[in-house]
Amino acid sequence: MAKKKSSLMAYFLNIGSVGVPNWASLGKGVVSLPIAYNPQTTTETYINEDSATTSVDSYQVSTGIDVALWDAANAPAHAFLETLRRLRSVGSDAEVQVLEVDLSTASPYTAQLNNAVISTDTFTVEGGKPQQLSDSIYFNGAPVAGTVAITNGTPAFTATGITALSLVSIAPAANATAVAVTAVIVLTFATPIKSESITVATAAGALVPVNRSWNAARTVLTLAPASNLAAATVQLVSIAGVADIYNQALAASVSKFTTA
Length: 260
Hints:
mainly beta; Elongation Factor Tu (Ef-tu), domain 3; Immunoglobulin-like; 8-stranded antiparallel β-sheet; 4-stranded antiparallel β-sheet; 1 helix; 5% helix
C-alpha cells in the first residue's frame, strides 16, 4: 500500500465566468493548502439517557493559502488573485469557483466543483524574497460532484447524477415565419438557471428592449418586448451566458424568427 502524494490532488480557480469557465491551476507558488471543514454540531443530553448525543448539522469549509507570486504568463491564477487584492473586491466581485480534482482516480478523474468567495488577508514585500500574498477562501453551499477530463492541462468538468442543462424549447420556434408583432419569447430549460445574458435583436443589429421574468422554478424565461416588434423583420434570439444552479454551462446559440 503506497501513500497518496499531495501532487495527486489538483486545484483550479475559475478566472473566467460561470457560463464560460477559464480554469487556472492553483498549484504553482503554493506549498500548502490546508482545508478546514469546521463542522457545526449540536450536542444534547436526553432526559432518558446519561450520555450526550451529538449531531453534525453543517460544515463551514475554508482554506488559507500563502502564495509566492509568479508572473501572469506562468501562473494566471496569481494574476487573478492580484486583481482581487488591488480592487479590494467585495460582494459578488469576490465570488469564485474552485475545482478539486483527485488525480489518483482513473480519467475522467473524480472531482467536485465548489462555489466560494476569496478575501485578501496580507500582501508582503520583503527584500530578497518574492512577493507574498495570503488569502482566505470560504466555500459556499454544497459541492457539485462530477468528473474532470484534462486536455493539455485544461480541465473540463461534467456534473454527475444531475440532469444535463439543455434548452428544451423556444417559442416562437426556430425559423418560424409570420410571427405576430405582439409575440413574447419563451425559453424553457431542463434545469434551474442561475445566470444568463440572452438578448433579442433584429438581423440588422438593432437591440430589442425586453422585460424579463422567470417562473418560480427558474426553468422558464419569458422575454416580453417593451413595444411591438418591427413588422416583416428577422428577429435573432442570442442565447449566451446560460449557466444553471449546478454550474453547468450551455453552449451559445442563436434562434431566429420572422415577424408578419
